[in-house]
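Figure 6 in text form: structure in, sequence out.
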């Protein structure tokens, strides 16, 4: 069964274990290809909170192997089963990670993740919900320039200040509401909240907390970052697998 190919919690196909016989398993590890495992840690949200920045920063760590694209396995692609698998191969001691911010607001996601890998560590990047809503709106505006104004979408009644909480940009930012669903399946100690604001003002400090939470050696430090004044947030001096500096793309840090 596909589930046995990728056991939860980093068990993996040890050399000589299930999944193709001892010799093949040993060869796989010797050749440095590693094994596909279910993610032991997932950045589950929040959209426009700084999830891409966090993932890119974490990928600098030699013991983190993360899929670059958002796999959307536990929301959009769940029916495809484990045979549909985008996870990178990992070696012994490495952590498999992925990030899909829409998981945080997907009702079925906590139960699905819990049933497949109960020990998965969850990371939630949060920022001021108003700033987050504006950033969300700005992203939509860049794709659909003719959408209504931010104010008209936000307020049901401008004079009374009544907010339309059914609008997704507002709804996503009601963090406590979504968190209730996650706490039905995961203890609070298994969830780390990362500050999107501190990810910009003190990336090394926030990454220190994340590395501790994941049980990783604190390898990512101040020396990995420089502040890009044009973009208004930190960039990596060297990206994963490259000797060149790396800033997030032009879709990040919109005015």
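Output sequence:
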């Amino acid at each position: 069964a596909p589930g046995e190919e990728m056991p939860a919690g980093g068990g993996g196909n040890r050399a000589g274990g299930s999944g193709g016989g001892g010799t093949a398993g040993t060869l796989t590890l010797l050749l440095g290809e590693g094994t596909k495992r279910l993610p032991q840690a997932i950045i589950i949200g929040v959209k426009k909170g700084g999830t891409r920045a966090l993932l890119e920063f974490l990928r600098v760590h030699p013991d983190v192997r993360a899929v670059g694209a958002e796999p959307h396995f536990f929301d959009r692609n769940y029916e495809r089963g484990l045979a549909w698998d985008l996870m990178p191969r990992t070696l012994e001691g490495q952590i498999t990670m992925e990030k899909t911010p829409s998981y945080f607001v997907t009702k079925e996601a906590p139960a699905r993740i819990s049933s497949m890998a109960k020990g998965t560590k969850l990371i939630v990047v949060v920022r001021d919900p108003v700033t987050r809503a504006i950033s969300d709106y700005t992203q939509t505006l860049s794709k659909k320039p003719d959408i209504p104004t931010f104010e008209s979408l936000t307020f049901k009644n401008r004079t009374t200040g009544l907010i339309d909480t059914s609008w997704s940009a507002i709804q996503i930012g009601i963090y406590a509401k979504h968190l209730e669903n996650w706490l039905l399946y995961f203890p609070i100690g298994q969830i780390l909240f990362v500050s999107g604001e501190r990810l910009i003002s003190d990336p090394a400090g926030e990454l220190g907390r994340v590395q501790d939470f994941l049980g990783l050696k604190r390898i990512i430090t101040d020396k990995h970052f420089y502040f890009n004044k044009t973009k208004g947030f930190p960039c990596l001096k060297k990206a994963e697998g490259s000797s060149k500096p790396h800033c997030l793309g032009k879709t990040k840090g919109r005015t």
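Caption detail: Confidence is low (pLDDT under 50) at residues 1-32.
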